[in-house]
Amino acid sequence: DIQMTQSPSSVSASVGDRVTITCRASQGISSWLAWYQQKPGKAPKLLIFAASNLKSGVPSRFSGSGSETDFTLTISSLQPEDFATYYCQQANNFPWTFGQGTKVEVK
Amino acid sequence: QLQLQESGSGLVKPSQTLSLTCAVSGGSISSRGYSWSWIRQPPGKGLEWIGYIFHSGSTYYNPSLKSRVTISVDRSKNQFSLKLSSVTAADTAVYYCASSIYSYYGMDVWGQGTTVTVSS
């Protein structure tokens, strides 16, 4: 299985801050990486697919980059509704695997 | 737009079989290129992909669960199902169904999730 490692596990930030989350794959996955946002008690929501493509309707303050083993999710200016847990997921190899999650908390 | 809704037994006894269904609305489960997944999340933990069924009916299961998992589709009811046998307390989780318009793009539509507790 491909291991997905996110860092940090949690980050404390304020509204307006720039937040960067990284995701590392244990082997190359081309650009087949997705990012999700999950709020407590809710299903995950797809934000970015194929590493850098913003899903329709997702605010442009979210962006993704990277390829092969190293990927980044950036929130350019954190908004109150962005406090949540974020997961990366590789879709290059079966079984699909997720990172352990990064919790974005209020500073 | 596409919507998914899970249903099924919320309490299952150890060693029994967990059965869940995901009803698809706003689209056809036979739509070309689509895949239909099950994912679970134990309390306070991360996400685990269980497996999927492709629009053609082919399946792929997570090897960690493969011996216990069956995913099937009922085209007449526009729904797909999960069966997980020989459950233990470790199978207690929120179970989600989700769809992918193109497998490499991740899962773009999710159900709201259903909680399954394994307990005697």
Defining key terms:
heterodimer, A: 107 residues, mainly beta, seven-stranded mixed sheet, four-stranded antiparallel sheet, B: 120 residues
Tell me the layout of helices and strands:
The complex is a heterodimer of chains A (107) and B (120).
Chain A: E1 4-7, E2 10-13, E3 19-25, E4 33-38, E5 45-49, E6 53-54, E7 62-67, E8 70-75, E9 85-90, E10 97-98, E11 102-106
Parallel strand pairs in A: 2-11
Antiparallel strand pairs in A: 1-3, 3-8, 4-5, 4-9, 5-6, 7-8, 9-10, 9-11
Chain B: E1 3-8, E2 11-12, E3 18-25, E4 35-41, E5 48-54, E6 59-61, E7 69-74, E8 79-84, E9 93-100, E10 109-110, E11 114-118
Parallel strand pairs in B: 2-11
Antiparallel strand pairs in B: 1-3, 3-8, 4-5, 4-9, 5-6, 7-8, 9-10, 9-11
The unreliable regions of chain A are: none
Largest interface, counted with CB-CB under 8 A? Answer: A-B, 25 and 24 residues
Structural class of chain B: mainly beta
Shape of chain B: globular
How many H/I helices of chain A?
0
Work out the strand percent of chain B: over 45%
Percent of residues of chain A in beta strands? over 45%
Protein architecture, described:
The complex is a heterodimer of chains A (107) and B (120). With 107 residues, chain A is an all-beta fold. Chain A is 0% helix and 50% strand. Chain A contains no helices and 11 strands. In chain A, strands 2, 4, 5, 6, 9, 10 and 11 form a 7-stranded mixed β-sheet that branches. With 120 residues, chain B is mainly β. Chain B has no helices and 11 strands. In chain B, the strands form 2 sheets. In chain B, strands 2, 4, 5, 6, 9, 10 and 11 form a 7-stranded mixed β-sheet that branches. A 4-stranded antiparallel β-sheet of chain B has the order 1-3-8-7, with no helix packed on it.
At a glance:
Helix content of chain A is 0%, strand content 50%. Chain A has strands at 4-7, 10-13, 19-25, 33-38, 45-49, 53-54, 62-67, 70-75, 85-90, 97-98, 102-106. Chain B contains no helices and eleven strands.
